[in-house]
Amino acid sequence: MKKIILLGFLGLMGLLGNVLQAQLLYRISGNGLKMPSYIVGTYHLAPASFADSLPGIRTAFDATEQICGEVDMIEALKPENMAKMQAAQMLPEGTTLSSLLTAEQLDRLNALLREVMGTDLTNPAMAEQLDKVTPMVLETTLTLMIYMRNIEGLNPYDLIDTYFQREAMKNDKAVIGFETVEFQMEILYGAPVEKQVEGLMCFVDHFQEQVEMADFITAAYFSQDLEQLGELNLEEQEGSCASNPEDNDKLLYDRNVNWVNAMPDIMRDKPTFFVVGAFHLCGERGVLKMLEDKGYKIEGVKK
Fold this sequence. Notes:
Oligomer: single chain
Distance between the termini: 32 Å
Largest sheet: 6 strands, mixed
Number of helices: 15
Structural class: alpha/beta
Strand order of the largest sheet: 4-3-5-2-1-6
Strand content: 5-15%
Shape: globular
Helix content: 40-55%
Radius of gyration: 20 Å
């Protein structure tokens, strides 16, 4: 999903000296903490099995007493919250994607759908599935398809973020989230529909650029190379469909600030294993650098 997968594609904004290396797991200590906490950067479409390749991950997990993700996934998957999410993904009754687009825009969209899916919105079965969703949801669906082709045998129900939370429950560890389901729905689906149409058509018109960037991102993440991810961020910022600064703040930087402000109390309460998207860790305005500025010692976990 584009806004989840590409969240933080906002530029390198400077490196962290010795903090950023080819790894994804970091120890947080000092500044009055009695026991260290840990933070791992995830790729929201990485399979759960990828966790086993991260050096020191099991030791770090076992040394903590609770898991904190961007959102409590168990809470998010409750039927009532799934219903809210599904409702947020649909256009108002009587409105369709086809009705929101000009005839020329619809032709361009249908051409891409035929290329990617083999059919388009003139097919009644396809229209039944996709013509009633918001432009952001269709863009997200197409983005997901790009990324899924890079990950062989991907099971959307067995991904790395939910893996850590499931493991916590198995081991009687508490699970908490930085954000509520409602907050994430607003972040993902709350943009005005006109702006969503603009984003969808930019995606359509620059599809190959999106494919190439997805290839680079996937390779960088599975190489556990945050520095390379940061460099890709800088390239994307100059891309055809880059977000504006206000959206960047809303999607990434403001959330980083909120999380870093909440982390001291969370870590003082219990040693915590934090699980957030890897792009949130990068740069001068990333979580790692801001924790360091608060006086915490940040160390890459080697083994």
